[in-house]
Design brief:
The structure is a single chain. Helix 4 runs parallel beside helix 5. The strands form three sheets. This protein has a five-stranded antiparallel sheet with strand order 2-1-5-4-3. Strands 6-7-12-11 form a four-stranded antiparallel sheet, covered by helices on one side. The chain folds into three domains: about 5-100 and about 110-150, no CATH class; about 195-240; about 250-405, Phosphatase 2c, domain 1 (4-Layer Sandwich). The protein is an alpha+beta fold and about 425 residues long. The chain contains ten helices and twelve strands. The two termini are about 60 Å apart.
Length: about 425
């Protein structure tokens, strides 16, 4: 959804809603005030007439005197909106004192303080009745025409409808203008993001909205940060390319191709791995067949470190697959001749052979280091092969391959 549609869907209805609420409140308030004014006029007329007709004698005198009757008629005619005045006595029909028309459908009138009845509609049109007591069982009724009120209310309704429509139009125009302004500045930001790194920075005066100007500055800052990070990454890659050698490449690749061996097979526990900075062709092979197992530490030599690593990986797979098929010594000689192994140490055992303590196999440049390793393993009774191998790697500090084989009855300390 575009910004223009969002503003049209939110701003214009909001203006219409506000205009409708304010117009409705104005309509209700104006109508209530006008009705209250008419009711006050009706009550005032009824009370004034009731003051002169407070007794039956006064009523008869007023009705029998032509001058008084004419004066009352003139007062009714000259009073704006006053249609007539009637007096109602208990059990008798309403008696017209002045004005025109008939008083029908009023019903029994109870005594009480001066009051007005709500707007009524009959054959004479809408009107308001004011009531005032003129003595026991006698009530004066004054009727005020309410047609002008309804005309003003109808005019007010039309005015409110025009205001609502105008508010909707104003909201629509404002939504279009604001959406177009924001969309134009966002388009400038988008064009700035899509521009080349060497493009000049846009003029900040072109942005009329402060937030979009800040957004543009933030985008430029993030872009500069990303560009700098990518440039540093490219420089780092170039530096690594210049410093890369076959030996360092083999060293970086070896951990994923020659993982450590930690296993239990044929009644023995085995821990073996490459330590220090071993030669490219050095490897560890471990093979199991039913109740037999074997471990081999060997080194393959070649003209380049990459070729030595390739030969070591191939020889390891061959030993893992065929070491225990027949005579292990013959299988090792075949692999040695096929892949050019320069040196190898190995051990094969079965589950029915008794295990006596820890045994260390190793290929390292320092023979004395292997002697110290075997001495340490002979004194490390009760430790698991993996723990002994960890200690040897730290204590000896040699480059090569070491394997520690021990009975599976050893219990690792918690």
């Amino acid at each position: 959804m575009s910004i223009r549609r969002i503003f049209l869907a939110l701003v214009a209805p909001l203006f219409v809603l506000l205009a409708a609420v304010n117009g409705g409140l104005l309509y209700v308030w104006e109508k209530a005030e006008a009705e209250k004014g008419l009711e006050g006029e009706a009550i005032a007329a009824a009370v004034t007439v009731a003051a002169f007709l407070s007794t039956p004698e006064r009523t008869r005198a007023a009705l029998s005197d032509a001058v008084r009757t004419h004066a009352l008629e003139q007062a009714v005619v000259r009073s704006p909106g006053l249609e007539g005045v009637w007096i109602v006595e208990s059990g008798r029909p309403a008696l017209r004192l002045a004005g025109a028309g008939e008083m029908a459908g009023l019903g029994p009138v109870a005594a009480g303080p001066p009051r007005a009845l709500p707007v009524r509609r009959d054959q004479g049109g809408p009107h308001v009745l004011g009531l005032a007591d003129a003595g026991p069982g006698r009530t004066v009724v004054a009727r005020i025409d309410a047609a002008p009120l309804f005309e003003r209310v109808a005019g007010l309704q039309r005015l409110i409808a025009l205001l609502i429509a105008g508010a909707g139009g104003v909201g629509l125009v404002l939504a279009l203008v604001i959406a177009r302004m924001i969309g134009r500045e966002l388009a400038r930001n988008s064009a700035q993001v899509a521009a080349d790194d060497g493009a000049p920075a846009p003029d900040e005066a072109a942005f009329r909205i402060r937030e979009t100007r800040d957004l543009g500055a933030a985008v430029r800052l993030m872009r500069a940060s990303v560009s700098g990070r990518m440039a540093r990454g490219r420089r780092e890659l170039l530096r690594r390319d210049r410093s890369r050698t076959p030996v360092t490449s083999v060293s970086a690749l070896r951990p994923s191709l020659s993982p450590p061996v930690v296993a239990e097979a044929a009644g023995r526990r085995v821990a073996a791995r490459l330590v220090g900075a071993p030669a490219p062709g050095l490897f560890v092979a471990f093979c199991t067949r039913e109740d037999r197992a074997g471990a081999v530490l060997a080194e393959a030599t070649a003209d380049s470190p990459a070729d030595a690593l390739a030969l070591a990986l191939t020889a390891r797979r061959a030993l893992e697959a065929a070491l225990l098929d027949g005579d292990p010594a013959q299988r090792l000689d075949d692999v040695r001749a096929a892949f050019g192994l320069s040196r190898a140490v190995w051990k094969v055992w079965s589950a029915d052979e008794p295990a006596e303590g820890l045994e260390v196999l190793g290929l390292a440049g320092d023979p004395d280091a292997l002697c110290r390793a075997r001495t340490y393993a002979g004194r490390a009774g009760g430790l698991a092969p993996g723990e002994v191998l960890d200690d040897l790697e730290v204590l000896l500090g040699v480059d090569g391959a070491i394997a520690v084989i021990g009975p599976s009855t050893l219990i690792e300390p918690p």
